[in-house]
């Protein structure tokens, strides 16, 4: 029993030692990366941004300001162009991913809730404040006068179907049907 406890303690101690060693190694790597980034930044600034030498006269200062403004405008235009390109590619990516999703045929159903809403409230929600008409469907219907056709008159003349059956029942009715068939 004590042997298992000693073994577990040794395994835990070893795990903790390995963990601390990995953390120390990670910290040193992060510090190296930060130093390398700083050196790279300094090199880039030295290459692209020459040291500023301020001229003595007002005329030369104005010329320098004009040059700086021109550079700022050029960089701004370039930044705007790259932002537009990025937005365009993002939109294309979204469209393509949507097409891919549609082609796979797996649709994620949104969670739907039941909402009790009258037709007026629905139209008000869709149309906003423009909707002021009451939703009375029967009010907009036309009155249509029905014209009697010959078929309808014939149907009315036949009358009740029960009377017709009673007339055909029994021997008399069969005799009439037989005579009508000849």
TrEMBL record:
<dbReference type="Pfam" id="PF00992">
    <property type="entry name" value="Troponin"/>
</dbReference>
<feature type="coiled-coil region">
    <location>
        <begin position="27"/>
        <end position="106"/>
    </location>
</feature>
<dbReference type="InterPro" id="IPR050875">
    <property type="entry name" value="Troponin_I"/>
</dbReference>
<dbReference type="GO" id="GO:0005861">
    <property type="term" value="C:troponin complex"/>
</dbReference>
<dbReference type="InterPro" id="IPR038077">
    <property type="entry name" value="Troponin_sf"/>
</dbReference>
<keyword id="KW-0514">Muscle protein</keyword>
<dbReference type="GO" id="GO:0003009">
    <property type="term" value="P:skeletal muscle contraction"/>
</dbReference>
<keyword id="KW-0007">Acetylation</keyword>
<keyword id="KW-0175">Coiled coil</keyword>
<dbReference type="InterPro" id="IPR001978">
    <property type="entry name" value="Troponin"/>
</dbReference>
<comment type="subunit">
    <text>Binds to actin and tropomyosin.</text>
</comment>
<comment type="similarity">
    <text>Belongs to the troponin I family.</text>
</comment>
<protein>
    <recommendedName>
        <fullName>Troponin I, fast skeletal muscle</fullName>
    </recommendedName>
</protein>
<dbReference type="GO" id="GO:0003779">
    <property type="term" value="F:actin binding"/>
</dbReference>
<comment type="function">
    <text>Troponin I is the inhibitory subunit of troponin, the thin filament regulatory complex which confers calcium-sensitivity to striated muscle actomyosin ATPase activity.</text>
</comment>
<keyword id="KW-0009">Actin-binding</keyword>
<dbReference type="GO" id="GO:0060048">
    <property type="term" value="P:cardiac muscle contraction"/>
</dbReference>
């Amino acid at each position: 029993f004590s042997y298992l406890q000693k073994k577990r303690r040794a395994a835990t101690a070893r795990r903790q030692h390995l963990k601390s060693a990995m953390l120390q190694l990670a910290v040193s790597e992060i510090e190296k990366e930060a130093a390398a980034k700083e050196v790279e930044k300094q090199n880039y600034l030295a290459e692209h941004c020459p040291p500023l030498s301020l001229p003595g006269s007002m005329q030369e200062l104005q010329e320098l300001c004009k040059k700086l403004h021109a550079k700022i405008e050029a960089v701004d235009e370039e930044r705007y162009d790259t932002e537009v390109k990025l937005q365009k590619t993002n939109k294309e990516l979204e469209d393509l991913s949507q097409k891919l999703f549609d082609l796979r045929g797996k649709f994620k159903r949104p969670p739907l809730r039941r909402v009790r809403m009258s037709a007026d409230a629905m139209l008000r929600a869709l149309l906003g404040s423009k909707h002021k008409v009451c939703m009375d469907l029967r009010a907009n219907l036309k009155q249509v006068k029905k014209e009697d056709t010959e078929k309808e008159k014939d149907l009315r003349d036949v009358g009740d179907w029960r009377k017709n059956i009673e007339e055909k029942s029994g021997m008399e009715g069969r005799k009439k049907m037989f005579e009508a068939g000849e």
